[in-house]
Write a structure and sequence with these properties.
Helix content is 78%, strand content 1%. The chain has one domain: Amino acid/polyamine transporter I. A hairpin with a 2-residue loop joins β1 and β2. By secondary structure, it is an all-alpha fold. α2 crosses α13, α3 runs antiparallel to α12 and α5 crosses α15. It contains 18 helices and 2 strands. The chain starts with 12 loop residues before the first helix and ends with a helix. The structure holds phenylalanine (PHE). The site of phenylalanine (PHE) has 15 residues, from α1, α2, α10 and α14.
Length: 449
Amino acid sequence: MENNNKRDSFGTKIGVISAAAGSAIGLGNIYRFPCELGEHGGAAFLLIYLAIVVLLGVPLMLSEFVLGRRSKSNAVGAFQKLAPNTLWPFVGYIGVLCGYLVFSFYSTVSGWTLEYIVKAVTNSFRGKDLATIEQDFVDFHNNGWRNLMWQAIFIFMTGFVVYKGVKDGIEKYAKILMPLLVVILIVLGVRSVTLPGAREGLTFLFKPDFSKITGDVLIGALGQGFFSLSIGMGVLITYGSYIKKNDNLTSTAFSVVFADTFIALLAGIVIFPAAFSFGVKPTAGMGLVFNTIPMLFNQLHSGYFFCIIFFVLLAIAALTSTISLLEVVVAYITEQYQYSRQKATVYACCITMFLGAFASLSLVEGSPFAKDGFTVFGMMDFLSSNILLPLGGLLIVIFVGWRLGKSQFFDEVTNGGTLKSPFKTVIFFIIKYLAPLAIMLVFINGLLS
Ligand code: PHE
């Protein structure tokens, strides 16, 4: 199984952070987070989400980094190296499967961002009311071919970057553009909270109604936390394997968790006040973001230009996430089966396009891939985010806490004793006891509710 090819690695510390943050920050923050929050009752969901991210975010992310850097291997190979002749590599296989699943439905939504760039450039939101913008969104969904075309283009773009390899591809694209996204979200946030009726949206977002906390909300928040941070499926094992020995894993994990959560919160502040002001229901699901945002730009000075920039940045944020999804699969294929990077990328993209087509087409009205409101798209999302990611995360912390053990963990996070890592004892305690317990409790609660 050992691969003798020289492994690629990230060039600089800031490159590592931006690649991991690039994976974490994406449609999960700006599209999925508001959807989930809106559907699960608002502030109560936010509270649970934050609790999960604060408690589990850094320990889980760090666990994956440690596994990756220690083994210098892909999601499956890491377990084979660290626990040879056991069933543990199974965790890596779940990750690879999950990579395909998430990439399949994620590329559908990523494709929408391209459609919306075109809409923005051709000024097709200008002067339209909500009903028309909503109808345009529905019409677009029902145009299966157009969806497939954008999805294919997006998968191709992802393949192109991954094909070029880690350093030239991923790092270069992630470094500069994310701060720009933050700036534009802040501009939008200011406009959103100053709209008439914005207050109601802020109340929805920040004033929790504890009676709304059900098992469903808990599972939803857990799944969203894992999805948003890209944890539980080996993305960060794979990226961890490209991190140099003298980089500080703990501070990298803290930075990424902070940036990701900050952007999700910003997205909430952009979407909800505006949605309430325009009359978009928080439970509107897919339309929540894709209808509210164009309406918001219609209210903004120089909205035409800002709107184009926003959708371009959203597409890029999605791209840095799909790159990481594809990288999990490609690293696995190249290292385990000795395929060339190019060949592995082409195969993985073709499989994703095949699976992803079902996701896209299941959203067309009357589609054979949808039944009673359940779509292939929704099922892929639910299965991967709410089941496989938490399951993968659970097995990863159990592995690090109980099998890899404290001394190896400490050795890796302190770079062999050369670095101070003041929180390592607390973090290891969470990894060994609290995280497995918390994930299991949420699971059981969700199954029983
Ligand atoms: N975290 C990414 C986002 O928020 C999505 C993702 C999930 C990426 C799982 C990799 C693994 O958009």
